[in-house]
């Protein structure tokens, strides 16, 4: 194991580990040991490229059934449909050539087919098809871990870290190499201070402006690493570009699982078995029995601390898209590599790749992401993190220049490394409720409550057969509590979206996190010219997810979560305890319906009220902070200050106007105004009005900007705009004075709540263009720095800053091309 210590940094006195050596969360708290895997690949060992593992099955779009929560798979960033290179086919001679020859032989025999009956011909075609399919499997197995490489890894048998596997198919020159474009120092410090990134940052800097192949940071075309620091970078880049597979495939039984699933076989063997059962040619459990057995085995494994190994996975979920039920969705291009726990803070982070290839949930798409959408997600997540909005974070973005992604045009591919304590969503419950898989809902709920929310009074699992009443387990209700927690967390997040002028763009229920983080940065945008009706997603013609409707759409999502968990909530109301394993299995559908009704009658309204009142409180608190007011009391609520402000902001640039307002408290102080304005003291009021007029107009001669960005408000509109703003400004100034705080201090505080830099759409677009055209990683780095420190005085002269630098910063803070007519491209 490679351990280095961060020299001189008090923040992380602990050891740092290369990415494969990051400490994993303890087995008991792992998602994969608490939830059910896809039956096609029931354990990490199924990723071994053995004849019956059928690797193409984990890339084939299909319904993933039997109560499954996730699918094991390895990242595979290749263009889709897959094309295997000719030399590879030759290499696969021993395995695949025989099949190829047989197919050819049969084609040569085609003229004999005239003599066959229709039935014989069909059977023959089917056989030929099967052979072709098998050949694909043979090719694909070369991209999976080879049986010979299992068990011999440096850390074989250890449950705390991963082994790196590089299958032969990924070694050849045709496998796309990767280039690290950026690593966020903020994500590293906030989430993974124990990660050793080697010389990655220096490497990125040194490769600015260079073109491949010299700029590859890992992969078959990159120069092999020579120092330890280079090794850590290579390993990081290889893992984050989806080439290197990090897994533990040996497990306790050296890949031999005692599961009946494994005996039935995985991949095609499993499917063939199922087909035989359906035809009555073989006997097997019913689906119900099978689910019960699988849950039982999982329980047993967890109880015994049995080590099944570890491998990446994609989540199965469903959702409502634009208000309509969309059925199974799932991680179509997201693959979670590992869950790590910071040894010092105990915080948990799930490391996930977005755009690393097909999964069973990819439907018709390629599982890849464009450079543009990846950079958008990378910068957007980090910008939101710095604004203090709960969000998934982005550690890195890696481009794969030789991998092409077809959208409206051909794009280069890239992969974002995203971090979140959990990637579970409201849709994670909906998939199971839509299929009446109540045991899966129970397992998921217990896991979220106990391991993610940390509610130690929630009992997880137990045996399905053993009646809990007899074993004396007290099962505290958790379902309603869980929904309320999800509601509160999302209410807070959405309130902060509003306060920060953030538009998510696709608030489908599959994009609403159970932990309340902002997730899935697609067509998001930050508000520039303020318009409450702003729509940022150009496929949202009706404006369902317009800025002003985001809170309402939050209510919709929470209502769907209530619907999904209604039988469990109803059960808890009726029985006064949470359901034990098996309890829900025994209920008939009319009993389930009665429980749903009970939940709707007794819980729905209150939960929605919890959501809306939390949102209102957080919204007021957030605005009070932006306005430098200590009292977020009710008199400053909707009626008094905030709604009139929003009306007054119409057509003004949201970020710059609010940043300008920060100067007001100090300005009032400098003009001798302090203390409350006494009602009826017309002299004082007149003086205040005069000062406010000066403030709003600015003074060019003194280099003092006015309240408005002159590029936004044309000359002829200024006086009308001023009239619109004046009454509010007067009200606001009075409130500031009434609080009686020191003006300079309030101004300083407000500057920490009103960012100078906001990531505007045009800025991201420009960064991407520069990357595409000139491999300009410096532009990306500059904008990243501004994203992670948005409150600094960007664009103002400061020591050590050249004039060009200052003006470039000011340009990046400016309105540029406004959002309207410049919506995010849909080339995702
Ligand atoms: P979104 O609304 O962006 O969250 O996407 C909806 C669903 O489509 C999710 O399940 C995504 O994983 C999936 N998806 C989006 N783009 C792709 C892609 N290029 N390949 C595979 N799946 C995708
Ligand atoms: Mg999504």
Show the helix and strand layout.
Elements: E1 3-5, E2 15-17, E3 70-72, H1 86-91, H2 93-108, H3 118-141, E4 163-165, E5 179-183, H4 185-191, H5 200-206, H6 228-240, E6 245-247, H7 260-264, H8 267-278, H9 287-304, E7 313-315, E8 318-321, E9 324-328, E10 334-341, E11 348-354, H10 371-386, E12 393-406, E13 410-420, H11 426-434, H12 438-452, H13 468-471, H14 479-499, E14 502-503, E15 525-526, H15 550-575, H16 589-626, H17 638-649, H18 654-661, H19 664-670, H20 682-697, H21 715-739, H22 743-751, H23 761-774, H24 777-788, H25 803-813
Antiparallel strand pairs: 1-2, 3-7, 4-6, 5-12, 8-9, 10-11, 11-13, 12-13, 14-15
Magnesium ion binds next to loops.
Key features of this structure:
25 helices, binds adenosine monophosphate, binds magnesium ion, 42% helix, alpha+beta, 15 strands, disordered N terminus, 5-stranded antiparallel sheet, 828 residues
The overall pLDDT, averaged over residues, is 90
Number of β-strand runs: 15
The small molecules bound here are: adenosine monophosphate, magnesium ion
> Count of helices?
25
- Tally the structural domains: 3
Name the poorly predicted regions. Answer: 1-12, 152-156, 252-258
Largest sheet: 5 strands, antiparallel
The proportion of strand residues reads: 5-15%
Radius of gyration: 29 Å
- The share of residues in helices is 40-55%
Shape: globular
Biased composition (Polar residues): 215-226
Family: Belongs to the SELO family.
Region (Disordered): 104-128, 145-167, 209-229
GO molecular function, one term: metal ion binding
């Amino acid at each position: 194991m490679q351990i280095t210590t961060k020299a001189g940094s008090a923040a992380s006195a602990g050891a740092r580990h290369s990415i494969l050596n990051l400490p994993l969360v303890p087995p008991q708290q792992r998602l994969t040991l608490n939830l059910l895997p896809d039956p096609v690949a029931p354990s990490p060992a199924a990723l071994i490229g053995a004849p019956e593992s059928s690797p193409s099955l984990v890339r084939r779009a299909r319904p993933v059934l039997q109560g499954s929560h996730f699918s094991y798979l390895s990242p595979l960033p290749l263009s889709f449909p897959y094309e295997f290179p000719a030399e590879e086919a030759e290499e696969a001679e021993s395995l695949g050539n025989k099949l190829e020859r047989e197919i050819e032989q049969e084609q040569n025999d085609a003229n004999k087919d005239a003599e066959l009956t229709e039935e014989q011909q069909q059977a023959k075609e089917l056989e030929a098809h099967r052979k072709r399919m098998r050949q694909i499997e043979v090719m694909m197995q070369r991209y999976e871990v080879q049986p010979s490489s299992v068990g011999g890894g440096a850390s074989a048998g250890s449950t705390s870290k991963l082994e790196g596997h590089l299958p032969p198919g990924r070694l050849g020159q045709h496998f796309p190499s990767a280039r690290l474009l950026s690593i966020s120092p903020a994500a590293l410090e906030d989430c993974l201070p124990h990660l050793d990134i080697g010389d990655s940052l220096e490497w990125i800097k040194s490769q600015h402006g260079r073109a491949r192949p010299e700029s590859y940071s890992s992969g078959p075309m990159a120069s092999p690493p020579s120092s330890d620091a280079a090794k850590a970078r290579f390993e990081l880049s290889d893992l984050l570009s989806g080439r290197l597979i990090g897994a533990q495939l040996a497990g306790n039984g050296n890949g031999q699982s005692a599961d009946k699933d494994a005996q039935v076989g995985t991949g095609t063997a499993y499917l063939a078995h199922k087909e035989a059962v359906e035809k009555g040619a073989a006997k097997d459990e019913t689906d119900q029995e099978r689910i019960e057995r699988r849950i039982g085995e999982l329980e047993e494994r967890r109880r015994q601390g049995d080590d099944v190994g570890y491998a990446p996975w994609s989540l199965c979920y469903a959702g409502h898209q634009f208000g309509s039920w969309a059925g199974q969705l799932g991680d179509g291009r997201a693959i979670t590599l590992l869950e790590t726990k910071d040894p010092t803070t105990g915080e948990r982070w799930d490391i996930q790749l977005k755009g690393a290839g097909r999964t069973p949930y990819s439907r018709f798409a390629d599982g890849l992401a464009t450079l543009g959408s990846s950079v958008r997600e990378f910068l957007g997540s980090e910008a939101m993190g710095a604004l203090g909005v709960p969000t998934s974070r982005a550690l890195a973005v890696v481009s794969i220049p030789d991998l092409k992604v077809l959208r409206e045009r051909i794009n280069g591919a890239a992969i974002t490394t995203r971090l979140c304590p959990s990637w579970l969503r409201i849709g994670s419950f909906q998939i199971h409720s839509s299929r009446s898989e109540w045991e899966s809902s129970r397992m998921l709920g217990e896991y979220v409550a106990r391991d993610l929310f940390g509610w130690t009074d929630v009992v997880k699992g137990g045996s399905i057969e053993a009646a809990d009443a007899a074993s004396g387990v007290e099962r505290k209700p958790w379902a309603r509590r869980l929904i309320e927690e999800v509601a509160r967390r999302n209410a807070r997040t959405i309130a902060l979206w509003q306060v920060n002028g953030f538009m998510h763009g696709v608030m489908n229920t599959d994009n609403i996190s159970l932990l309340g983080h902002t997730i899935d940065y697609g067509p998001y945008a930050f508000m520039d010219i303020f318009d409450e009706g702003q729509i940022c997603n150009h496929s949202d013609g009706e404006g369902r997810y317009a800025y002003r409707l985001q809170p309402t759409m939050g209510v919709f999502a929470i209502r769907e979560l209530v619907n999904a968990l209604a039988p469990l909530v109803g059960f808890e109301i009726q029985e006064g305890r949470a359901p034990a394993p098996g309890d829900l299995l025994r209920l008939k559908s009319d009993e389930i319906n009665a429980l749903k009704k009970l939940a709707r009658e007794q819980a729905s309204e209150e939960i929605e009220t919890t959501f809306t009142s939390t949102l209102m409180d957080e919204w007021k608190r957030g605005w009070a902070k932006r306005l430098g007011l200590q009292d977020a009391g009710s008199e400053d609520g909707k009626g008094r200050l905030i709604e009139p402000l929003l009306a007054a902001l119409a057509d003004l640039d949201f970020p710059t106007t609010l940043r300008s307002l920060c100067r007001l408290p100090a300005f009032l102080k400098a003009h001798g105004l302090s203390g409350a304005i006494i009602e009826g003291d017309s002299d004082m009021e007149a003086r205040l009005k005069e000062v406010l007029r000066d403030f709003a107009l600015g003074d060019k001669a003194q280099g003092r900007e006015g309240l408005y960005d002159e590029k936004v408000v044309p000359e002829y509109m200024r006086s009308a705009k001023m009239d619109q703003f004046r009454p509010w400004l007067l009200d606001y100034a009075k409130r500031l004075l009434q609080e009686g705080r020191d003006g300079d201090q309030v101004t300083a505080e407000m500057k920490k709540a009103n960012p100078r830099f906001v990531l505007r759409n045009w800025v991201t677009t420009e960064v991407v263009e520069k990357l595409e055209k000139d491999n300009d990683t410096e532009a990306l780095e500059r904008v990243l720095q501004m994203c992670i420190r948005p409150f600094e005085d960007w664009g103002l002269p400061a020591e050590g800053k050249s004039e060009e630098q200052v003006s470039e910063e000011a340009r990046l803070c400016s309105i540029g091309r406004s959002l309207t007519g410049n919506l995010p491209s849909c080339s995702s």
